[in-house]
Amino acid sequence: MRSIGKFLALEGNVRVMAVQTLISQLGFGMFFVVWQPYILHRGMSVVGLGVIQSVMNLSTASGLIIWGVLSDRYGRKPVILVSHACRVLAMAALIISGDFVFLVAFAFLMGFSSLFMVGNPARSAMITESAGSGSMATAYSTLMSISQITNTVMASAGGYIAVTSGYSPILYASFVGDAIGLLLLTLLLKETLDPTLVEDVSESPMERLRGFLMPEAGIGRLYLIFLILGLGYGTGYSLFYGTLVDNYGFTDLQLGLLSTAFNLTWGLASIPVGKISDRWGRKPMLLASCAMSLTTVVGFLVFRSFGAFLFFQVTSALDPAFWIPAWMALLAERVPRGRLSTVMGKIDAYAKISGIPAPWLGGLIYTRYGFKAPLLVHLASLIIVIGLVLSIKEGDASLKADN
């Protein structure tokens, strides 16, 4: 068992996060697939759903910057705990009421947690510091595999429960699972930030503000990639499940099957992809991700049947399976540990900032021009990103942040 744990990088904090992820995703795996249909069920239009998603994007961008800076100054564990507490409160807001004010509160808290379709920078930094340089991608991939395989089981269950019993059981299950996960993290996580790496804060407020917002010298290309991805993915996919319901009449059960195909593929592919990334390098994995993303969007544009959408969920899942562990390891190899969480948060924040108007824009374009229009915006952005990834040279000194 110990050898298996070492092979999967399931040791120390990574093992604790694995257990927490498993418990939390038992409920959250159901919630993810039905949250947009739930908001539409409360009487929101697709454009209104875009407004809710935009609030979430704005608060996510703020959270990524704030948590990243605080993590590098005060430690990974306290930031992780407060972030998870925000997600618990977000679910509580939905349970209390489905009125617009509570939907906005849910969107703000869920986004601010930086734990919804994005990697919390404190959590990401703790994973790299706990796993070590030779198994960083493997650690990320193992945690993603646990998350996605759990989602695979729960997504179809969530669709079935929504059809037969309504949304309330799913909301309560998500709240309870996250609350138990938060308790486990509180009791078992060990701090990984070395106090000697904490930066001196004796700089002027303007200098600090500039440091919070501006890209570090030497890695501006990486920021630009995420800036473009935020707009492209946000426009193309933020309202994807909602538009499938509105345009094609897909049911909650069908959405559950789509999510199952996505999560199962991601879960099964994650560990071998992480191992390959640790052995062969980061750039080949990033290019493979781009190829999968390109295949997916072309498939969604060309085909219309549910079976076709189900098939292209496989290539859609391989996109993040290739990208995320390679990208996180790439950053960890180029950024000093004392600034790692800050940079991780800022780069993700760039994507969220560019994505703030994207759901609204996607909803507007969809309403005016139809289902394919938002996907065409994503396709255009993807072509630009492929060119930028091709220009990256692994080990290029120009990508290294200054100490």
Can you give a write-up of this model?
The protein has helices spanning 2-7, 13-41, 46-74, 76-96, 100-112, 121-131, 136-165, 168-188, 205-213, 220-237, 240-248, 252-280, 283-302, 306-334, 340-354, 358-369, 372-390. With 403 residues, the protein is an all-alpha fold. The chain is globular. It starts with a helix and ends in a 13-residue tail after the last helix.
Index terms:
403 residues, mainly alpha
The helix/strand order is HHHHHHHHHHHHHHHHH
Please state the overall shape, judged from the principal axes of the Cα atoms. globular
How many individual helices?
17
Beta-strand content bin: under 5%
Largest sheet: none
Radius of gyration: 20 Å
Span between termini = 40 Å
- Give the uncertain stretches in residue-range form: 397-403
The chain-level structural class is mainly alpha
> What fraction, in percent, of the residue positions are helical?
over 70%
Please, what is the average pLDDT?
84
Number of E strands? 0
Outline the fold blueprint.
Blueprint (H helix, E strand, L loop, with lengths): L1 H6 L5 H29 L4 H29 L1 H21 L3 H13 L8 H11 L4 H30 L2 H21 L16 H9 L6 H18 L2 H9 L3 H29 L2 H20 L3 H29 L5 H15 L3 H12 L2 H19 L13
Helix pairs in contact: 2-7, 2-8, 2-12, 3-4, 3-5, 3-15, 3-16, 4-5, 4-6, 4-8, 6-7, 6-15, 7-12, 7-14, 10-15, 10-16, 10-17, 12-14, 13-14, 13-17
